[in-house]
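This entry is passed on directly below:
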Amino acid sequence: MPDLTKYKTTILTDGKGRTVLFVVRNYVLKNPGITYEKLKDVFPDKLQTKTESQFSKHGRCVVDRFRDDDKFKERFHVGEADQIDLNGERVVVSREWNAENIMEFIKHCRTLGIMIEPVN
């Protein structure tokens, strides 16, 4: 049975994947000019652990460049409204988070001053 726990940020309550997308998008908005490499430093690859299939062919990452590939589309938020403009480069965020790695993401976000709480 899938884990359907919702998560609450300061203004959003949603599922795991949408919560991560919201956090990454807001981080980019609050840090104009941030590069892809810096974004990956802020949200390191290790946040999505133990689930190899959750990562694109480009490697283990939270965010990755947009590509036109069906497997890629299934695993990332690729809708036009979901893509993040990073200095003219389109970036998409993984939508595959489980009960274990979302907790790693939440713990990491707390170190950045971003508060996310589970909602029962």
User: Anything to note?
Assistant: Confidence is low (pLDDT under 50) at residues 51-60.
